Amino acid sequence: MYWELYRPDAVVVWESPVVRERLRWYYSVMRSSAPAKFHIAARIEAPPDYASMGDEELWKLHERLGEVFDDEWRRQKEKPDVSLVKKELPRASFLDVKIELGRRQLRRCMLCERRCGVDRTTRRGACLLDHKPRVASFFHHLGEEAPLVPSGTVFFSGCNFRCVYCQNWDISQHPEAGVETTSQALAAIQIRLREEGARNINWVGGEPTPNIPHILESLKMLAARGVNVPQLWNSNMYLTPEGLSLILHVIDIWLPDFKYGNDKCALKYSVAPRYWEVTTRNFSVICSRGEDIIVRHLVLPGHVECCTKPVLRWLAENCRHVLVNVMDQYRPDYLVPKMDRYREIRRRVSEGEMEEAYRYADELGLAWREVTN
């Protein structure tokens, strides 16, 4: 295959026992020897009158069905049955309940911790988006972590962060750069990417969180078509508990950023209040469930002590099965070269800083060499 010429490490990486063990579920779905989680959610039966329930009652139903899902997912991990993807869908399902809750969020959006509460059917939220998803591009990405290549990336416009060094600022801060699309189009994109050899569908941006309702709708369409492909969440993880719970049972592998080790830096560089509380809360949920996860940490110049070390230490203490990509790709972009208040990060990360970050990751016993590019 063409991509093997460019990324032979994407083949060799699966010879690593650490990678095979820690990404076991993803590997099974990637090879279509297990059903993607959205197929399980789509076949857990729900009451046919779910759409008439009030919000509180519907969330309680979601919680109960989540327990049923966890039991079935546990069985699938022990003894995968990929024939599930061809089974008929029930009249109403756990996935349908998620879709209904997601649609209601668009009327008073609380998907991310901005909690803007905006009716996105009438105006834009803090993410700069209305109720319609906008896609900037989609393609087979060969630059991602080795276990993910080729990754079927779908880049959404808009974002709930305001990172002053954002390398995708042209789409994250200018959503009009993307093309307005539909849930049906998102399903068609996934089918095409999978048929062309993508190992996964990589929801990214910008930020995918504002688009949760449409992503869920597209997965229902894939479930009906019997298309099996791992779902990957590539996010800043600034979700509310409600936002996280909506995607928790449909994501097969997580690829989140863990940017900052304190709230001061998060507020200054991404305008993200309560960053540490929010992200560690969400990471705790994912890690406690034993989900397959690769965490990205971008090392910022001058921030090894205040950000890199606290992030790595938290992961070592709370998420022992994690794979960590300790990234040296920072470059002073977007607002950094233009504004003096960010002059301290107006340089690339030094070789010494990266060596210190790698040394500390080793000292903590983290698995990073397998996925760090």
Summarize the structure.
The chain has 373 residues and is an alpha/beta fold.
Please report the number of helical segments: 15
Spatial gap, N to C terminus: 21 Å
Strand order of the largest sheet: 3-1-2-4-5-6
Examine the coordinates and then state which fold CATH places here, giving the name of the CATH topology: TIM Barrel
Rg from C-alpha positions?
Answer: 20 Å
Biggest sheet, open or closed, and with what strands and sense?
6 strands, mixed
Which whole number gives the mean pLDDT? 97
- CATH architecture annotation name: Alpha-Beta Barrel
**How many domains make up the 3D coordinates?**
1
| CATH superfamily grouping | Aldolase class I
Quaternary state reads single chain
The coarse silhouette is globular
Content-based structural category: alpha/beta
Give the strand tally: 8
